[in-house]
Design a protein that fits this description.
The protein is α/β, with parallel strands linked by helices. It folds into two domains: 131 residues, 2-Layer Sandwich (Nucleotidyltransferase, domain 5), CATH 3.30.420; 172 residues, ATPase, nucleotide binding domain (Nucleotidyltransferase, domain 5). Helix content is 43%, strand content 19%. It has a five-stranded mixed β-sheet, sandwiched between helices. A five-stranded mixed β-sheet has the order 8-7-6-9-10, with helices on both faces. Helix 1 runs parallel beside helix 2, helix 4 packs parallel to helix 6 and helix 7 runs parallel beside helix 8. The radius of gyration is 21 Å and the shape is globular. The structure holds 5'-O-[(R)-(carboxyoxy)(hydroxy)phosphoryl]adenosine and zinc ion (ZN). The site of 5'-O-[(R)-(carboxyoxy)(hydroxy)phosphoryl]adenosine has 19 residues, from helix 4 and helix 5. Its EC number is 2.3.1.234. One of its GO terms (molecular function) is iron ion binding. Pfam families: TsaD.
Length: 335
């Protein structure tokens, strides 16, 4: 039988990435991270699009040249259709279309959120179906019931900010650079999670809300700075630990509820926030206690990357799910 080799492109936010997958095995995962956004304290969409335009040719070139394949060997070109920033997506979609057209091979569109879940199939151990995936990143917070590679159902999600956004906005209030999530994690390790109390917002069903935390932190800081002359940097560790504690609690309350509702004990986490050591440790303990099988992908496959797009595309190729040449990106796109 013929080899299936796919070039995948990811450009939904601030990472330009390309990856080659050969017969279901990821050969590489080239990622160009955009640093232009740092000084703005968040991703600036127009700057992201321009950086994608600069990066896409060298990133794709590197993926091809380190794969040992020629572009004539490719079976298909895959790309992230959405959700994401429209201008950023457009760069990847247009590039993928032109390349597929020039090589006369099929196009495969991938849903970025599905791909985050399918990142679990890049390496062993792989979760068994059905499993529940908690996808947590800067742009998304979802509980997904995964029935098969291409059959997923969102059973809970945030109604406002994503959990990564809550980490980053808290960090910004503390004067930390963007993205602040990893720094909160770092400081939290030295702090007492019970030092201060931040609200645990409870939404109906399996939904989340993380927008309250930034206001709580803002008021807390104002009050402390006025009333407590001894409040200083040393308290930052306690503050980070306490905020992180609340965020993790909120994530896990709904995860436990989902496990109960669906009777599934195969649990996976995905997305950039799954790098958080507090979340990993708490979840690992919880899984042990409750007899869950827990799956956490390598960090490289948690943050935005094209390897997960390639993995999703491989499943779609096998099902013969191809996109037409007039496909357009979608800023909002459901699983
Ligand atoms: O998946 P990702 O790379 O991009 C999106 O699709 O959003 O996730 C980035 C998010 C940012 O909000 C970043 O602050 C957060 O993941 N993040 C962390 C940690 N590492 C990354 N948040 C908390 N603790 C970490 N160690
Ligand atoms: Zn993402």
């Amino acid at each position: 039988t013929k080899d299936i080799s796919i070039l995948a492109i990811e450009s939904s936010c601030d990472e330009t990435s390309a990856s080659i997958i050969l017969n279901g095995k990821v050969l590489n995962n080239i990622v160009a991270t955009q640093s232009v956004h740092e000084k703005y304290g968040g991703v600036v969409p127009e700057l992201a699009s321009r950086a994608h335009q600069e990066n896409i040719v060298p990133v794709v070139y590197e993926a091809l040249s380190t794969s040992g394949l020629n572009k004539e060997d490719l079976s298909a070109i895959a790309f992230t259709r959405g959700p994401g920033l429209m201008g950023a997506l457009l760069v990847g979609v247009s590039f993928a279309k032109s390349l597929a057209y020039s090589l006369q091979i099929p196009l495969i569109e991938v849903n970025h959120m599905q791909a985050h879940v399918l990142a679990h199939f890049i390496e062993d151990p792989k979760p068994k179906f059905p499993f529940i995936c908690l996808t947590v990143s800067g742009g998304h917070t979802q509980l997904v019931l995964v029935k098969s590679p291409l059959e997923m159902e969102v059973i809970g999600e945030t109604r406002d900010d994503a959990v990564g956004e809550a980490f980053d906005k808290t960090a910004k209030l503390l004067g930390l650079p963007y993205p602040g999530g990893p720094l909160i994690d770092k400081y939290a390790k030295e702090g007492n999670p019970k030092a201060f109390q931040f609200p645990i917002t409870r939404m109906p069903e399996l939904d989340y809300s993380f927008s309250g935390i930034k206001t709580a932190v803002l008021y807390f800081l104002r009050e402390q700075l006025q009333s407590n002359p001894n409040f200083n940097e040393e308290n930052i560790a306690d503050l980070c630990a306490s905020v992180q504690y609340s965020l993790i609690e909120m994530l896990l309350i709904k995860l436990k509820l989902a496990v109960k509702q669906y009777g599934v004990k195969e649990i996976a986490i995905a997305g950039g926030v799954s790098a958080n050591s507090g979340l990993r440790d708490t979840l690992t303990d919880l899984a042990k206690k409750r007899g869950w099988n827990l799956y956490i992908p390598k960090f490289e496959y948690c943050t935005d990357n094209a390897a997960m797009i390639a993995m999703a595309a491989h499943f779609k190729y096998q099902e013969g799910e191809f996109a037409s040449m007039d496909v357009t990106p979608l800023a909002k796109m459901k699983i």
